[in-house]
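User: Can you help me understand a structure? I only have the sequence.
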Amino acid sequence: MNNNDILKKLRIALDLKDTDIMEILKLADFEISKTELNAIFRKEGHRNYKVCGDQLLRRFLNGLILKKRGAREATPVKKEKINLLRKKKQ
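Assistant: Let's start by predicting it. Here is the structure, written out as tokens:
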């Protein structure tokens, strides 16, 4: 199964339209035209077929996370203190 098949199956499972997919990609800072998107959903033998690259699929999944969960809040990094047990010299 290639990236095109994965994107097609996600489109069907989530009942997404072309405009929804373009909006999701914009959330992940990736712009694509409607003709480029339609080329990805073509059959492999079609003359306008375009391969869905790893970056496009990754950006789509990241945008989908942002749409469903929302943006991640910036949380301060907690530094854990490590207590070392030392033997007392007597």
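Now, to help you interpret it: The longest helix spans residues 54-69. Helices lie at 3-13, 18-27, 34-40, 54-69. Let me know which part you'd like to focus on.
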